[in-house]
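To close the chapter, one final illustration. This time we ask the reader to focus less on the individual chains and more on the assembly as a whole: which components sit near each other, and how the overall shape emerges from the parts.
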Amino acid sequence: EPEVTQTPSHQVTQMGQEVILRCVPISNHLYFYWYRQILGQKVEFLVSFYNNEISEKSEIFDDQFSVERPDGSNFTLKIRSTKLEDSAMYFCASTEQGLAAGELFFGEGSRLTVL
Amino acid sequence: EDQVTQSPEALRLQEGESSSLNCSYTVSGLRGLFWYRQDPGKGPEFLFTLYSAGEEKEKERLKATLTKKESFLHITAPKPEDSATYLCAVNSGGYQKVTFGIGTKLQVIP
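The assembled structure is written out below.
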């Protein structure tokens, strides 16, 4: 069964450092997303990406965050200068037809710990 | 702004003891209500999408229903492997984002 894969599974970094989280969405999917979940809190939308551009972003997704699809398979989330409050589980998701089809396929997540 | 409230926050059932989880929502034009299952340390796993009031969907021991203000996830004769956090989420308007509730953590005791 096709799946969304994310790397690394866990990253520990120092405050102020840059972090890149990587995702390989399901191959025939066209819509890509990043969500995050701070421990014990809700899953929160960060950004959606379609046709090589951001289609929507939340208030959380400020200038410290960026996304990129550098090639035909990878989808990355970059945090330029990490803060303590960026510590969370980051989930990549994809879907073939956008949310009209309903189902988001999530990866296993990348746990980011900022010290 | 879309809001999703789930209750109870935690539920402990004996194996075979049926129950329901509640999700109440406030949106400006519901396009879809979703149920996901999340195991500890994992990403959410899709269960159901409901689009309009009166709609029902079933999968094994789970049945999801939808009204204009809330959705229920009914669990019939649960087994220990049904233990997980169940997340409710909504999509509204012309937006690409999905708004999640905090979830109900279900524990099924053998």
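Chain B has a mean pLDDT of 95. The interface with chain A takes residues 31-32, 34, 41-46, 49, 51, 87, 89, 91, 95-103 of chain B (CB under 8 Å). With these observations in hand, you are ready for the problems at the end of the chapter.
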